[in-house]
Amino acid sequence: MDRIAHFRLHAEFKTTGAISINSPQRSLTRSVQEDVFFSVDVACIGIPTIQWTFMSGAVSRTIGTWQPGVYTNITVDYSSRVQPYRNGSMGLSDLRLQDGGYYVITVTETTGNSKDAGHVLKVNEVLYEDLQYLSVSALALACLAGLLMLSMWLLDKAYRKIVAWRRRKQMPGKANVKNKSVK
């Protein structure tokens, strides 16, 4: 039982010296155009320097560095989408497919000691195939209904003309009237 409790403690708190980084969730999944919040709680001696870095494959980019209450420096690539927080957390808005990867927070004390913790972000592409299939099916059914209505209207017109033509043909008085007036 002590091993389980000890393991949980180290899973929630990564400590080096006096630095601790507490993060309730290390693996996150979001969809394109959603927002994500990398929740951490940093504790250390003095004012920490917090740096977030993005890594994916061979790419490694610094997102931003800040000291709570002192300065904030977010890179140009992320300046419109990143929100830094005093406790070390970071919000990233309007996710793109290429935002999926590994996010590392590095906390550095004024003494120079530092500690890293990582988060994995999976960004799902919103699949519109189902919506496209549904809209194409609805459009096809609407066209079919339109064609059926048009054919019913044309058949009704043809039926009325045929009925009128037969009535004229069956009227014996009309032919006699024409013949009498000619004489």
Please, how many helices? 3
CATH class of the largest domain: Mainly Beta
Total discrete domains? 2
CATH fold call of the largest domain: Immunoglobulin-like
Q: Please state the second-level CATH architecture of the largest domain.
A: Sandwich
Low-confidence stretches: 1-16
Shape: rod-shaped
Strand line-up of the largest beta sheet: 3-12-11-6-7-8
- The CATH superfamily name of the largest domain is Immunoglobulins
The percent of residues in helical segments reads 25-40%
Protein name: V-set and transmembrane domain-containing protein 5
Transmembrane segments: 133-155
Keywords: Membrane, Transmembrane, Transmembrane helix
Give an account of the 3D structure:
With 183 residues, this protein is α+β, with helices and mostly antiparallel strands. It folds into 2 domains: 2-124, Sandwich (Immunoglobulin-like); 129-175. It has 3 helices and 12 strands, in the order αββββββββββββαα. It has helices at 2-12, 129-170, 172-182; strands at residues 13-16, 19-22, 27-31, 36-38, 41-43, 49-56, 59-67, 71-74, 82-84, 90-92, 101-108, 114-124. The strands form 3 sheets. It has a 6-stranded mixed β-sheet with strand order 3-12-11-6-7-8, with no helix packed on it. A 3-stranded antiparallel β-sheet has the order 1-2-5. Strand 11 and strand 12 form a beta hairpin. The radius of gyration is 37 Å and the shape is rod-shaped. It comes from Collichthys lucidus. The chain crosses the membrane at residues 133-155. This is V-set and transmembrane domain-containing protein 5. InterPro entries: Ig-like_dom_sf, Ig-like_fold.
